[in-house]
Amino acid sequence: MPSKPKLGQHLLNDPQAAERIATSLGDLTGRTAVEIGAGQGAITAALAARAAHVIAVELDSAYASALREQFPTGRVTVIERDILQFDFQAAAVQAGAPLLVAGNLPYYITSQILLKLAAAHASIDRAVLMVQREVADRVTAEPGSRDYGLLSVTAQMYGPAQQLFTLPPSAFSPPPEVHSTVFRWRLAPRFADLGVDEIAFPKFLRRVFHQKRKTLANNLRAAGFEPARSSAAMSTADIDRRARAEALPIESLAALWRGLNPPPAC
């Protein structure tokens, strides 16, 4: 096995944690699991013991080659590729069912990977992911808390997220400078029940969360909405004009969006 992690990877060296990650995905019987950043195969082995098929995606060529030697049977397929270029839809079609996803995410592209998974929601059932503790806190944060913000709303818009357990730096090689938290994310988008557009609503959220210190009314003004129109929409959504976006649940933000974007008259 390659001895030196590359590409910002901190490799999991805690076998029990790998087992807990695989177990947290639920029943894998007959299912296909995709692992993001397989590294030295700790999580891969735990998944392979449970799933019908594991697709281990690893960008580093040395790790990918070693993984093929470690898992020579057809139960594990090693793909040497950037996960941001992986086709989840094609893999789900080949599997004949939505995928289960696990991984110890590289810190430097965590947000990009989460957005990639969100975009592939139709092809994914659930994911169990390890990220920096601070990121997990933001993903799972409640409205009004210190960590609640755009990442919280965006992730939870695609389905509920729940923290599972936290690991110290000593569980990795080399040890990172931060703790890491594993969370489970069920991909079940809420666009239909919230009555919002899948493309336009996320763009709206980026606008209202643009300046955290500004009130929602000021962010709407900066985004180009007329004050009178914003005031009427906030009143309809029962939102205080002094409120900030980070104090509002996604249901209130959706109501505001609907008020600002009424359906065309028949």
Shape: elongated
In N-to-C order, the SSE pattern is EHEHEHEHEHEHHEEEHHHHH
Q: How big a fraction of the residues is strand?
A: 15-25%
CATH topology of the largest domain: Rossmann fold
The CATH superfamily of the largest domain appears as Vaccinia Virus protein VP39
The largest pleated sheet is described as:
7 strands, mixed
- Count of individual helical segments: 12
Q: What is the number of beta strands? A: 9
CATH architecture of the largest domain: 3-Layer(aba) Sandwich
Task: Indicate the low-confidence ranges by residue numbers.
Answer: 1-6
CATH class of the largest domain: Alpha Beta
Average pLDDT over all residues: 93
Largest beta sheet: what is the strand line-up? 4-3-2-5-6-9-7
How much is the radius of gyration in Å? 21 Å
Protein structure class: alpha/beta
How many separate structural domains? 2
Query: How far apart, in Å, are the first and last alpha carbons?
Result: 65 Å
Specify the helix fraction band. Answer: 25-40%
